[in-house]
Amino acid sequence: MRTDYASAEQMTANREWYVVDAADQVLGRVATEVARLLQGKHRPDFAPHQDNGDFVVVLNADKIRVTGNKADQKVYFRHSGYPGGGKSVPYRRMLSRKPEYIIEHAVRLMLPKNALGRKMFRKLKVYAGNQHPHEAQNPKPFNL
User: Fold this and answer.
1) pTM of structure
2) Which fold has domain 14-66+121-141?
3) Rounded to whole angstroms, what are the CA distances from 35 to 53, 96, 110?
4) N- to C-terminal Cα separation, the chain
5) What's the pLDDT score for residue 72?
6) What letter would DSSP give residue 26?
7) What is the pLDDT of residue 14?
8) Domain boundaries in the chain?
9) What is the predicted pLDDT for the residue at 45?
């Protein structure tokens, strides 16, 4: 038995664009579906070693919601690499300053941690409002 895989030209020619409206949606539910679309797991030609996923545009990132007490307890931590260089930002402050980062961070952690995952992540476009500059690609709405 032989397994046929799509070539790089075939994969890039068949990419779709999807628009996901994140208004009043739970963060984890949106992130899992977006990661699934970026990896191409919804397609019949899925192969874990190839990037045959689609482009995803997420709108209304500022209207995303979290369940339970996460709005008060969730903290985003980063470290500069220098001694004492740790910074933690609470969820509410991150939502008011950079709402796009919240969805990008959740999706990035659900993708593979290698060069292929970084390539998949570049196909994600997140916007705080409901306007986006990708109308020329004729994106299809994706219902969650």
Assistant:
1) 0.91
2) Ribosomal Protein L13p; Chain: A; (3.90.1180)
3) 9, 24, 6
4) 37
5) 95
6) B
7) 82
8) 14-66+121-141
9) 85
